[in-house]
């Protein structure tokens, strides 16, 4: 609207507005520009949300495909930790519950040089204990620097998926939390399927 004022309003080639109608016109330009800016910003936010939703859907589909062809718990753990590492940007680890006895196995991490140690197993055990009988798969923040998701199918406690962020988070973003829960449920169902197949073969 400044260019319009400069070239078309009298006196021309100045930013001075002599007529009252010119003031109304400039004010209208300003209001329209503000409205268009708000609409463009809202559209941009909606576009980002759609892109994020597409990325989450793609990640879930890719994980489902890998879990469908997994034939061992190691394959399932590797697929789940890779998927979580990719979508979260954090180090991820899988700790399985061994049969019989329910002891926790050695953590398997992605990337391989992720700092997994005895604290990782302690976090996993605390997560399973906190899950209780409800089998709730929501991410839990442990006191050992890990966010953990219990892998529970029915009454079976099958393992834990753990996330360790370079910059510790006090709260997980809602979108990441919901995606991690969906991934953990898929992994738990795949683990239950593999164990059932093993029991039937025995």
Beta-sheet strand percentage? Answer: 5-15%
Structural class: alpha+beta
How is the main sheet built?
Answer: 5 strands, antiparallel
Biggest sheet strand order reads: 2-1-5-4-3
Question: How many individual β-strands?
Answer: 5
| Distinct helical segment count | 5
Q: Which consecutive residue ranges, at least 5 long each, have pLDDT under 50? A: none
Shape: elongated
The secondary-structure element order is: HHHEEHEEEH
Quick check: average pLDDT? 83
End-to-end gap: 80 Å
Helix content: 55-70%
Radius of gyration over all CA atoms, rounded = 27 Å
Which characteristics define this entry?
202 residues; alpha+beta; five-stranded antiparallel β-sheet; 5 strands
Characterization of this structure:
There is one protein chain. The protein has 202 residues and is an alpha+beta fold. Helices cover 57% and strands 13% of the residues. It has 5 helices and 5 strands, in the order αααββαβββα. The chain has helices at 2-8, 20-69, 73-88, 118-131, 174-201; strands at residues 91-96, 108-110, 140-141, 147-153, 156-164. It has a 5-stranded antiparallel β-sheet, sandwiched between helices. β4 and β5 (156-164) form a beta hairpin. It is elongated, with a radius of gyration of 27 Å. The model has no long low-confidence stretch (mean pLDDT 83).
């Amino acid at each position: 609207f400044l260019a319009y004022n400069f070239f078309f309003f009298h006196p021309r080639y100045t930013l001075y507005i002599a007529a009252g109608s010119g003031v109304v016109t400039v004010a209208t330009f300003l209001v329209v520009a503000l409205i268009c800016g708000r609409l463009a910003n809202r559209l941009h936010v909606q576009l980002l949300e759609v892109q994020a939703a597409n990325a989450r859907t793609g990640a879930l589909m890719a994980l489902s495909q890998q879990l469908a062809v997994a034939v061992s718990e190691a394959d399932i753990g590797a697929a789940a930790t890779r998927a979580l590492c990719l979508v979260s940007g954090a180090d991820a680890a899988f700790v399985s519950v061994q049969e019989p006895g329910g002891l926790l196995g050695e953590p398997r991490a992605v990337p391989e040089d992720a700092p997994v140690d005895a604290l990782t197993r302690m976090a996993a055990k605390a997560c399973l204990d906190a899950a209780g009988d409800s089998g709730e798969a929501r991410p839990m923040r442990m006191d050992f620097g890990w966010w953990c998701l219990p892998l529970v199918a029915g009454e079976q406690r099958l393992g834990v998926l753990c996330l360790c962020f370079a910059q510790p988070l006090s709260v997980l973003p809602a979108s990441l939390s919901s995606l991690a829960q969906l991934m953990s449920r898929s992994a738990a169902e795949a683990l239950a399927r593999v164990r059932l197949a093993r029991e039937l073969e025995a």
